[in-house]
Amino acid sequence: MKRICLDPGHGGEDPGAVGRSGLKEKDINLQVALKVAEQLIEKYAVNMTRVDDEYVSLSKRCEIANQSKSQLFVSIHCNAAENTGANGIETYHYYASDRGRHLARGIQWGLIALTDRKDRGVKEAGFQVLRGTVMPAALVELGFISNDEEEKLLQNEEYQVACAKSIVRGIEEFFDRGY
User: Fold this and answer.
1) Across-strand partners of 46?
2) Phi, psi angles (nearest 5°) of residue 92
3) Which residues pair with 79 in a beta bridge?
């Protein structure tokens, strides 16, 4: 059985970005990650870096993923910007990871297709959870919590389910294509 490690970003004393209504990124990240896990659990072994509102350091997240011997790693986040008009979805992979790029592309494509949000593209980055994991990894930004419209979407159950389905589709496509 293939193993997947899901990483709901932030947690505990680290709320991540906070929207104008007080919505905390850490809460959305966990809600969506749990929905992804629920959809994956029948076909895959799922490991999570956290399952409740606890702080887990970036190095510990990498350690959890690497020790789980997962075939891939997905970190779930919400974006934020000083410009409250910034919007859309983007997905990152580590610079030199061709397989990570394929994973990120599949997730990004699914998110744009199912949510109809602005496509900010697939990007490269050196985030610690991307460079510190030994398996293909992607970090997804589900929308801007700093944007009033997207903040409302991020707390909407239907939007969260659509995001979770999209992430699952991206994971399944990654494995189906033999990456």
Assistant:
1) 4
2) -110, 155
3) 144
Q: Which residues contact 125 (CB under 8 A, 6 or more apart)?
A: 92, 93, 94, 95, 139
Q: Which residues fall within 8 angstroms of residue 22, CB to CB, at 6 or more apart?
A: none
- Is 90 a residue of the active site? no
Over the stretch 121-130, which tens digit does the pLDDT of each residue have? 999 999 999 9
Query: If 0-12 CB within 10 Å is exposed, 13-18 middle and 19+ buried, where does residue 177 land?
Result: exposed
Write the CA distances from 27 to 36, 50, 154, 161, integer angstroms: 14, 12, 10, 15
User: What is the pLDDT at residue 178?
Assistant: 87
Q: Catalytic residue, from 82, 90, 124, 141: name it.
A: 141
Contact by Cβ (8 Å): 94, 126: yes
